[in-house]
Specification:
single chain
Length: 93
C-alpha cells in the first residue's frame, strides 16, 4: 500500500505546514514537523489546544476556501499534516 503523502506535491505540503504554523503562531519543532506526526494530543510536539483548532479552521477557510463546519471532520482532518493536506485536496472546488 502506498503512503498517503506519496501522491501529495511536496510544495503543497510545505504550503499547508506554513499555513498551520502561522495560524497557531508557533515555530516548527526542532528537527522539523513530520507529515505523519500528531498535531494534537499527548504525542504532539506542537501542544495545540481547541482554540488552536478554531484558529486553524478559520485559516483553512481563508487560505483554501474550504469551510470545515463539522467538529468531527475538523478533528479527523487535523490528525496530522498529511491528513490535513489530503482533506484539503479532496475538498477543493
Amino acid at each position: 500500500m502506498t503512503a498517503p503523502n506519496a501522491t501529495l506535491d511536496p510544495a503543497f505540503l510545505e504550503d499547508v505546514k506554513t499555513m498551520l504554523l502561522e495560524a497557531v503562531d508557533i515555530s516548527e519543532p526542532a528537527g522539523g514537523l513530520r507529515t505523519d506526526e500528531p498535531l494534537f494530543g499527548p504525542d504532539s510536539r506542537l501542544d495545540l489546544d481547541s482554540l488552536d483548532g478554531l484558529q486553524l479552521s478559520v485559516a483553512i477557510q481563508k487560505r483554501f476556501g474550504i469551510r470545515v463546519a463539522d467538529s468531527k471532520d475538523l478533528r479527523r482532518a487535523l490528525a496530522s499534516l498529511n491528513t490535513l493536506a489530503m482533506y484539503l485536496v479532496t475538498h477543493r472546488k
